[in-house]
Inverse folding.
């Protein structure tokens, strides 16, 4: 249960409550928006099935770091660990915390950046206490989040009158032109960020009972639950508000709720999104440090990052939180979103290629790689600056590895 909860908590974060605003601006077509969320769910499912095979073969904490080290080369594994630290967890945690601060401003009456910083520190403090306490809180918050999301969907679909949304009998909507393939590829990159937690359970493999059997189930179950929630949430957003009201807004859920004209619904939506974003921050604070701790045990990172006597990796938690705080106070949302999507897609695609090299081709793995390569190629064409930052991130990681990793550490060469 805790592994599936980690998947759900990691996936339902800032992306689903912000991305549709960018999609509305770039795509301008309701059908295309819903299609891209369905394709994103299929893409995540293909990845989850592929990672499930890797988890059976290598039931160790560490995610892409372990998989690439075993199937491709230790250097590739080290770079994947670097990507996890900077892009995979620190940046999304900063984005989720930033969005939390904005949605929670009506409750806490403080600057959003300050409340976001408090959330990051609170998550680090909780998970530094130990794994059992963190897991219990995580499961409870995820169950509450799912109940509240289902409540939002039910109220939106059956109790609240939409103002534009989806076509209704006897009405005619203005014609919408279908977006270009380049725009769809960038949109899928953004959506893939929203689904990026589908691989979350592999980061805590050593803390899961019977990981060879439990992890694949947790990956697929968590991904399936989130895909259904995402599609229905976007149906609700598109029902409640016209595209012109959603386009370009990061607080897309709140914008949609405000169109209902019901004050309690808007307030409840803000509270729901704040809770969802908080659980996402807690999940990333739990999962990411396991990668750096595993690298430290293998001699690929400073030894102080590895916990002693099987306790929580406190210093790894503090390191990730410090990076998230730096990004929170210095970076912008939209640039990080595209940079994160491109860099993470490169890492997961290489990991699934490692599976194909290790076990041979399979339909889910081939489908995942084909979608990834198409998405990366078109996204690089349409967003060259963010792609350049992704290449810089990988190059910087390789340089740091060469400067810091001991030459006699065979696990990292």
């Amino acid at each position: 249960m805790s592994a599936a909860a980690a998947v759900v908590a990691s996936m339902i974060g800032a992306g689903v409550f912000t991305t549709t605003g960018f999609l509305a601006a770039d795509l301008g077509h309701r059908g295309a928006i819903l299609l891209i969320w369905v394709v994103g769910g299929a893409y995540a499912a293909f990845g989850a099935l592929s990672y499930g095979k890797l988890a059976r073969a290598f039931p160790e904490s560490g995610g892409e770091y372990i998989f690439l080290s075993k199937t491709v080369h230790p250097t590739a594994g080290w770079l994947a660990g670097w990507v996890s630290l900077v892009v995979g967890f620190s940046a999304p945690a900063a984005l989720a915390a930033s969005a939390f601060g904005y949605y929670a401003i009506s409750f806490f009456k403080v600057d959003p950046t300050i409340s976001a910083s408090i959330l990051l520190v609170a998550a680090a403090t909780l998970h530094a206490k130990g794994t059992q306490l963190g897991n219990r809180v995580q499961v409870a918050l995820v169950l509450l989040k799912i109940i509240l999301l289902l409540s939002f969907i039910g109220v939106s679909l059956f109790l609240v009158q939409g103002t534009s949304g989806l076509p209704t009998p006897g009405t005619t909507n203005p014609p919408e032109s279908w977006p270009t393939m380049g725009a769809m590829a960038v949109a899928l990159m953004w959506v893939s960020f929203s689904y990026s937690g589908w691989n979350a359970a592999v980061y805590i493999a050593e803390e899961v009972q019977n990981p060879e059997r439990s992890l694949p189930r947790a990956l697929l179950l968590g991904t399936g639950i989130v895909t259904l929630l995402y599609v229905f949430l976007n149906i609700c957003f598109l029902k409640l508000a016209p595209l012109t009201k959603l386009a370009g807004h990061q607080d897309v859920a709140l914008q949609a709720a405000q169109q209902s004209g019901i004050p309690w619904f808007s307030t409840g939506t803000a509270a729901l999104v704040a809770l969802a974003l908080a659980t996402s921050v807690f999940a990333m604070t739990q999962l990411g440090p396991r990668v750096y701790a595993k690298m430290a045990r293998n001699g690929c990172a400073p030894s102080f990052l590895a916990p002693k006597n099987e306790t929580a990796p406190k210093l790894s938690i503090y390191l990730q939180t410090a990076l998230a705080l730096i990004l929170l106070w210095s970076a912008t949302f939209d640039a990080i979103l595209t940079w994160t999507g491109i860099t993470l897609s490169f890492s997961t695609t290489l990991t699934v290629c490692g599976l194909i090299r290790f076990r041979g081709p399979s339909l889910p793995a081939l489908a995942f790689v084909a979608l990834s390569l198409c998405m990366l190629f078109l996204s690089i064409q349409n967003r060259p600056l963010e792609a350049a930052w992704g290449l810089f991130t990988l190059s910087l990681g390789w340089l740091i590895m060469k400067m810091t990793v001991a030459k006699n550490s065979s696990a990292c060469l």
